[in-house]
Amino acid sequence: MSVILCTAGYDHTIRFWEALSGICSRTLQHPDSQVNRLCITPDKRYLAAAGHTNVKLYDIKSSNPNPVMNFEGHSNNITGVAFHCEGRWMVTSSEDCTVKVWDTRSGGLQRNYVHKAPVNDVVIHPNQGELISGDRAGTVRVWDLGDSVCTHQLIPEDDVAVSSVSVASDGSLLCAGNKKGNVYIWRMIQDANVTRIVPITTFQAHKDYLTRVLLSPDVKHLATCSADHTAKIWNLDPLYPPAVAAAAAPPSASKLNSITKPNGTLSNGSGTPASASSLTLRSASSDLAASDFSMLGSQSPNSVAAAAAAAASAQQAAFPTQPDGPPMDETSHTLFLETTLAGHQRWVWDCAFSADSAYLVTVSSDHYARLWELASGTIIRQYSGHHRGSVCVALNDYSEPR
């Protein structure tokens, strides 16, 4: 199974899809509750399905329809799930205001971290030693697994729920989105085993509730999903033609495209305001394996003319601001709306990038999952079978286990 693609939602089923044909190859029943989140182990052996109060672990390569392990301990909806790079442990977040770390071999609870509000999402830093979670009170917390403490507390907008968080595959960037549609991006810097978190930029991605933010494997794109029925792809690559043009343009011209940014508070775990720095967004250099989706067609680069046309329409540059200070160097901090994926008829809840960052799968309350080619912004495949809202998706098309 070179490509594993599965979706789930409110019809109490988990569906596995043949990514290229769009055929549903397998359906698992999840009678306990709706499925809120899905996650595939890096070795492609197991699928975790997070429901109301438990996480069920299914054997992907087996025909057994029953879970091989059940993780119980949360007392409310589980909102996030992620695996250690070798699958030895799993982290979950929940509306019961906790983040829990589980031993996937024994099923035992290893860590329990408490927020002051329901937790909406959690991710694992690539260093495998830190967790990042976001809650409904508007707080993003960084947890050190070694010392079992919260080392950083970020409050982008006080009392505005953080709906989703994402960390770059190389650990360089941290991103959070909130219910007002605003996105915050920080740079994560390792200094002598101490992580510094520096604010880079803030912008409004959607005018309606933002449900998911996700950085691409190549760290050149950011996907955002929303209640406005769309997903959007934001380009972080400084070599993207509109970014190059903005950098070369006089400051007065580049300011015309700036996005108004909401006020925010940034602090570390002790409450000390975080300092801003004029660091540029840079693409990551990684050796990720080529995606098996490449057989769908190659990703052709945007032409300068097409990029200029896109920039002239809905694409805008977002520049960082220092807390209580003037804007930083505008020409070195451009972030452009590259593509708006419009086609779903209701809320878009979740998304997943292909390994080569050329494709995106989205799921929606309209019951459908869709595969998009990002270079053209077109729908390549549509997956139809859920009879209620599809709210979560998991995709692993890496040619080798991560």
From TrEMBL:
<comment type="similarity">
    <text>Belongs to the WD repeat LST8 family.</text>
</comment>
<dbReference type="InterPro" id="IPR001680">
    <property type="entry name" value="WD40_rpt"/>
</dbReference>
<keyword id="KW-0677">Repeat</keyword>
<feature type="repeat" description="WD">
    <location>
        <begin position="341"/>
        <end position="382"/>
    </location>
</feature>
<dbReference type="Pfam" id="PF00400">
    <property type="entry name" value="WD40"/>
</dbReference>
<keyword id="KW-0853">WD repeat</keyword>
<dbReference type="GO" id="GO:0032956">
    <property type="term" value="P:regulation of actin cytoskeleton organization"/>
</dbReference>
<dbReference type="InterPro" id="IPR011047">
    <property type="entry name" value="Quinoprotein_ADH-like_sf"/>
</dbReference>
<dbReference type="InterPro" id="IPR015943">
    <property type="entry name" value="WD40/YVTN_repeat-like_dom_sf"/>
</dbReference>
<dbReference type="GO" id="GO:0031931">
    <property type="term" value="C:TORC1 complex"/>
</dbReference>
<dbReference type="GO" id="GO:0031932">
    <property type="term" value="C:TORC2 complex"/>
</dbReference>
<protein>
    <recommendedName>
        <fullName>Target of rapamycin complex subunit LST8</fullName>
    </recommendedName>
</protein>
<dbReference type="InterPro" id="IPR020472">
    <property type="entry name" value="WD40_PAC1"/>
</dbReference>
<feature type="repeat" description="WD">
    <location>
        <begin position="203"/>
        <end position="237"/>
    </location>
</feature>
<feature type="compositionally biased region" description="Polar residues">
    <location>
        <begin position="255"/>
        <end position="273"/>
    </location>
</feature>
<dbReference type="GO" id="GO:0031929">
    <property type="term" value="P:TOR signaling"/>
</dbReference>
<feature type="repeat" description="WD">
    <location>
        <begin position="112"/>
        <end position="153"/>
    </location>
</feature>
<feature type="region of interest" description="Disordered">
    <location>
        <begin position="254"/>
        <end position="273"/>
    </location>
</feature>
<dbReference type="InterPro" id="IPR037588">
    <property type="entry name" value="MLST8"/>
</dbReference>
<dbReference type="InterPro" id="IPR019775">
    <property type="entry name" value="WD40_repeat_CS"/>
</dbReference>
<feature type="repeat" description="WD">
    <location>
        <begin position="71"/>
        <end position="112"/>
    </location>
</feature>
